[in-house]
Amino acid sequence: MSYFTTPLESATRKRLDALLENLGWDCDEQSATCNVFTERAKTKTQKAALKGAQPDYVLYERGTDDPIAVIEAKRPGQNLAEALKQAIDLYAKPLGISIVFVADGSFVEAHDLRDGRRLTIDGEDVTSLLSERDVLRFLDQGAALVTPAVIRHTKQELISAFGAANDLLRKEGLREGLERFTEFSNLLFLKLISEIEADREANGEPRILEERYCWDAFKDKPDQEMLDYINDTVLPRLVKNYNHSSDVFQKTLAIKSPKTLGLIVKRLSKLALLNTDSDIKGDAFEYFLRNSVSVGNDLGEYFTPRHIVKLAVDLVDPLFEETIYDPTCGTGGFLIQAFRHVKGKVKNTPENLRFLREDTIFGRELTATAKVAKMNMIIIGDGHNNIEQMDSLSKPVKEEYDVVLANFPFSQETDYSGLYGYETDNANPVFLQHIINALKEGGRAGVVVPEGVLFDEASPYVRVRKSLLETCELEAVVSLHEYVFRPYTGQPTSLLIFKKGKPTKSVWFFDVINDGFEKSTRKLGRRPIPENDLPLLRQLWSERGHSDRSFSVDIATIRKHGHKLTIDEFRDQYANPEWVQLGGKKGVCNIVIGGTPNTKKREYYGGEHLFAKIADLTACEEMELHETEERLTDAGVANSSVKPVPAGTVLFSFKLSLGKVAITGRPMYTNEAIAAIIPKDDRVLPKFLYYVLPRIPVPGARKAAKGQTSSKGRLEKAKIPLPDITEQRALIEMMEAHDAKVAAMKAQIAEMTAEVDEEFRARALS
Fold first, then answer.
1. How far is it, in rounded angstroms, from Cα 666 to Cα 711?
2. CA-to-CA distance for 355 and 686, rounded, in angstroms?
3. CATH class for the region spanning 9-145
């Protein structure tokens, strides 16, 4: 039994009070300017409309009697879906309120009742309370806000400026990647901190860095004079102010050419990184760090996607007066979010802020990006003194921290495994052991690990998994698909959430098939999409509920499976137990795999037999495939492992490009990357398979870093839902109607494009 009692709803309200005050809401109900009312509405008419119901919080537009949002608070761990229904029916509808927040102290959901959607900003769900200004923006612009164009433009210009600076710094002899990146970061920091100081002064606050050390003091000087001024005047002041624990700033710039410096400063001078319509401050700097793909792979490994960082921090939920540690902090992503998370939930008194700055955040980083992490921490409110540049594994930590958040670099080598009782040069298991050791009794961790850590049968991996399960309560394994870390890597990963002190009894698994961003390798980043499993994860978190994305496995079963912790290891047994097996003896279908005739023998190709490959499935815009790019001769068929596939057969790609589907419109053959799936009897319709197969998880699909790959054996073990034939036909009819609408829209777009193109040519080119 735990020594402490369970927090009540009042604990949540204390957190929400601090959050609202920090966001600028006036919570003093004795004040005439108050715009936050608790357990009551503001006017008697509104009170009557509630019919005795008492909302936890009603938020008002300042200076009016107009309610603009309601907050329903629940004790930590209570179901937020039930809270949302209560908030809508009892409070929001009677008061005519459109914006509803539900919160349990750790998680916040935000909804717009006008169209039933979650609030989003730039495609990402809002997972925190908002300022009055932002609530009013949502009321004015709808549930999906987009960053103002001027800010998006500024951010893109920032990346463009680095691209230009990168070319200039190459001529300076600075090495690609960290060296050039760090030098540019020095100048970017100077620009941003100068804007912050000007903003502080405009708001009547005292400056920390005097004006003569800021951007405007040197940006218009001649190039040589500017270089001398920065080296002789500005940098010495920054060194004095900020180099307390180590060198955040070097004593002189690495740039030696005055002309190079002048060109970079001129480019940055055109940008306004702070904007009154956006509380970005360090966001511009952070955006630059996350999106500078051009800095190369030596930095790419450090950038954990922001929505995954926020998820990990929210699940672990660091509290005020807890110590937070990241042993591989990179540019500080986890530490920045943790700092913001804690700061937002505590009253920002001078003493509290001092504790946050000096005694809360701790980080280590092997590379020179430690300096960039320090700059990042200075920008969001100091707190840089406890970040060190060092190899974390060289200095073990024993029960020092309340919270550890980390995404350690994968597949590194180490000379220090002996300090942890291991005999290996593979750093992966050693990093995880370092994190376990660093936690205090009762401490909590959120750690991103490569998938191999969870299933590799080598002794160090098995040992560290046993150590984790025996010394910690592994609360969750959140499986992340292989596009989450694109464009940097296609490495499949999982997020582990655990608490030290008690052995694990059961592990909750959640499968993130969609994370709210497209599955692409675009160098400019993955674009937002509506499909997102993370809101469901947050809803299920308190009770670790079962769903089509989640299930729990007891420790006895995990031991029988060699302490393996991948979701694939248990999906067949635990996920959707009412589903049926696709193939094999117990399955509803036979699965036939094709082959490829010897490509060096051209006499095997160019015949009459259709030969389907993944490219044909990709190019097929309709349900049925009637033609293929290549055809086989009789000799090609006779001298290979290809097998005939009749018309009406479902084709499914399962190697490197998983999930492409089509139905054969004519008899054909396939290569070895395509499975022909043939129903054994009339229990399942081919068209139902066509629609359902791309929408289900396939066992083993995560274990290839260069694309999703399965195998015939794993595909046979896949499970599918099997409604009765009447329901299958109804679902097919629904999807065919949808496909017809999409096709009509595409045809209309094509026609409109052709018309406007013709008109443009006639007017512009005649």
1. 25
2. 63
3. alpha beta
- In whole angstroms, give the CA distance from residue 269 to residue 195: 11
Contact 125, 532 (CB under 8 A): yes
The CATH number of the domain covering residues in 301-574: 3.40.50.150
Torsion angles phi and psi, residue 58, rounded to 5: -120, 125
Tally of helices (H runs) and strands (E runs) in the chain: 27, 30
Give residue 296's pLDDT.
42
Task: Please state, in angstroms and rounded to a whole number, the distance separating the CA atoms of residues 720 and 700.
Answer: 15
CA 76 to chain centre: 24
Domain 589-722 carries which CATH code?
Answer: 3.90.220.20
CA distances, 140 to each of 115, 143, 178, 582, 639 (Å) = 14, 9, 43, 49, 68
- For residue 281, the model assigns a pLDDT of 40
Give the percent of the chain with pLDDT over 90. Answer: 57
Instruction: Give the residues across from 511 on adjacent strands.
Output: 479
Alpha carbon distance 615, 629 (integer Å): 8
Q: Do domains 149-282 and 589-722 have the same CATH topology?
A: no
pLDDT tens digit sequence for 61-78: 999 999 999 999 988 767
pLDDT of residue 704: 42
Cβ burial, residue 122 (10 Å; 0-12/13-18/19+): exposed
Nearest of 436, 406, 405 to residue 420 by alpha carbon: 436
Give 498's strand partners: 445, 474
Residue 299: the pLDDT is 38
Is this prediction's pTM over 0.85?
A: no
In which band, very low, low, confident or very high, does the pLDDT at 473 lie, cut at 50, 70 and 90? very high
How far apart, in Å, are the Cα atoms of 500 and each of 319, 333, 473, 559? 16, 23, 6, 19
Q: Quick one: which of 547, 433, 453, 445 has its CA closest to 493?
A: 453
Average pLDDT of the residues in 561-590: 88
Query: Counting beta carbons within 10 angstroms of the beta carbon of residue 91, is it exposed (0 to 12), middle (13 to 18) or buried (19 or more)?
Result: buried
Q: How many CB atoms lie within 10 A of CB 473?
A: 18
- The CATH T-level fold of domain 149-282 is Ferritin (1.20.1260)
pLDDT tens, position by position, 209-222: 888 999 999 999 99
As a whole number of angstroms, the distance between CA 368 and CA 366 comes to 7
The alpha helices in 580-724, defined as continuous H runs, are 614-619, 634-638, 686-692, 712-717
Residue 571 has pLDDT above 90, yes or no: no
Tell me whether the omega of the peptide bond preceding residue 667 falls within 30 degrees of 0, making it cis: no
Record the tokens describing residue 606, joined without a space: 């160019």
How buried is residue 419: exposed, middle or buried, by Cβ count under 10 Å (0-12/13-18/19+)? Answer: middle
Q: Nearest CA to 60 among 89, 25, 87, 10? A: 25
Distances (CA, A) of 378 to 183, 267, 281, 358: 17, 23, 11, 12
Q: Name the residue ranges covered by the structural domains of the chain.
A: 9-145, 149-282, 301-574, 589-722, 727-766
User: What pLDDT, in 10s, does the model give residues 165-206?
Assistant: 778 888 888 776 667 777 887 888 888 888 888 877 877 778
Burial of 388 (0-12, 13-18, 19+ CB in 10 A): middle
- Tell me how far CA of residue 150 lies from CA of 164, 195, 313, in angstroms: 21, 16, 30
Q: Which two tokens stand for residue 461?
A: 């991996």
Closest by CA to 560, choosing from 549, 551, 570, is: 570
pLDDT in tens, 512-562: 999 999 988 877 678 888 889 999 999 889 888 888 889 999 999 999 999
* Of 240 and 382, the one with more pLDDT: 240
- Say if residue 703's pLDDT is above 70: no
Per DSSP, 166 falls in state H
State percent of the chain over pLDDT 70: 90
- Average pLDDT on 274-297 reads 47
